[in-house]
Description:
By secondary structure, this protein is mainly β. It is about 5% helix and about 30% strand. The protein is built from 2 helices and 13 strands; from the N terminus they run E-E-E-E-E-E-E-E-E-E-E-H-H-E-E. The relative contact order is 0.12. The model has no long low-confidence stretch (mean pLDDT about 90).
Amino acid sequence: GRFPGVPAKTWVSRVEASHFDAATVYVTFDNHRENDFTPYVFVSNDFGRTFRRITSGIPTDRPAYVHVIREDPQNRDLLFLGTDVGAFVSADRGASWQRFMQGMPTVPVHDLQIHPRDREIVAGTHGRSIYIADVAALEDMAGARGDSVMKKPAHLFAIRTAYQYEQPFRQMWAGNHVYQAQNPPYGATIEYRLAKGNAPA
Length: 201
């Protein structure tokens, strides 16, 4: 009765306690076993006494039922969602959502983990292995923390440590297939934001 619109006996797919506020908890539901593909995402800010729905921007014209929700460990305004049609991100604590991870196919995302040191998100999918994305810039831009960044005509984000290395030759016996993914490009990565009208010529 605390979750408006959720049918009785719907599966709880994830409970995510806030890293920042003991009174805040996020809950997602999955009712696809009953041919109900609705995205059910809720938040409570009063220790679970009341919940409100936060699904604005999640598509309802396809089976976007929810497997997992994660709160970013660096920025409380940044939330990530794994659904049956891909990953979504919110920079305003769930008030609105948009599709996340450019180049990621429309694939079920069953789990999400955010590495607190490397500031990367890891998405575990059904049938398409894992995807990893750097979320450091998003952490700096989301919510109140990003207000100063968004007001600047240009902003250079912190540059992560780059390593120089060699790849030695090694013998290997890999069987009839080698399973591998493309690594990030060699060298330092520089991320910046230019406000509209400040693009380089």
